[in-house]
Recover the amino acids of this structure.
């Protein structure tokens, strides 16, 4: 258990950096589990069959291998006291098993078309599909069958 005196210390810049970087690494690794698609279909959790689950490292194992390489790159970047960026995602160019959901759009938004074009063939655009899923779930949860039918038929 942490002592209360430790809990109330003001963290140093190095501690803050390590904490935030750790959260970023978690998100980076998770993106290969939860933001990937195969044949136009998002890889999701499957409570009925964990063999085809997003967290199963043997289901499209290239995702796991890319996540390991991406995290290794991120740790190297951290250790060399550099800024994080796209280098961690370059591993997606070396595989053909899956696509990253919306990575092209995200890279284009931040770095522009010149950089984003390299991600175009490795990106699965699911904005409309995901938006419909979110709306469908919200409406179902609030019992709005009529509104759901109108929206889904547009």
């Amino acid at each position: 258990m942490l002592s209360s005196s430790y809990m109330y210390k003001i963290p140093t810049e190095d501690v803050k950096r390590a904490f935030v970087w750790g959260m970023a690494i978690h998100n980076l690794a998770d993106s290969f589990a939860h933001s990937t698609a195969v044949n136009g279909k998002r890889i999701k959790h499957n409570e009925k069959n964990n063999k085809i689950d997003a967290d199963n490292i043997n289901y499209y194992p290239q995702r796991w291998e890319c996540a390991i390489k991406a995290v290794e790159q991120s740790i190297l970047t951290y250790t060399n006291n550099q800024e994080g960026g796209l280098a961690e995602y370059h591993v997606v160019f070396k595989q053909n098993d899956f696509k990253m959901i919306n990575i092209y759009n995200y890279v284009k938004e931040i770095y522009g078309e010149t950089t984003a074009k390299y991600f175009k063939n490795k990106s699965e655009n699911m904005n409309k599909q995901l938006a419909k899923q979110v709306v469908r779930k919200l409406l179902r949860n609030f019992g709005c069958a009529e509104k759901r039918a109108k929206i889904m038929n547009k």
The CA atoms of residues 68 and 136 lie 34 Å apart. Residues 13-34 form the longest helix (22 residues).
